[in-house]
Amino acid sequence: LMMEMRAFSDKPCVMELGIDTRSFYTDPAAFGLAMREAGAAAADIERFRAILKERGLVFLALENPARALRDLRAAQDMSSPGQSDAEVLEALKRAYAAKEVLDEAERKAELMKLVPVTVLTGFLGAGKTTLL
Fold it and tell me: How far apart (Å, rounded) are the C-alpha atoms in residues 12 and 34?
């Protein structure tokens, strides 16, 4: 899949559009929208959307929902106006759910790191030691 992405980024039709290809890997949604705005062929846009969809599904299978969400959202944004891909929508739901589970686990882990502390203050002779 990554080799396919690399081959796609080196296609002459992509290079001729004058798009900054550095965002190809770092911000695929912006790259896809830039392709559309630059007048790329519909087949090229659809192929890039399909690559992002597959990459998102792979990240979801690898239990990396944050990376999956980025690619799946980009694939959804690149869909033709008025059309949506049911498989992408279902994968987005699963990715959001998986991300929530991971976020909740991280919050619980942070709470487990906390140590309860009680601070006892008072004047000399007020009975602090007796209280202990």
Answer: 16
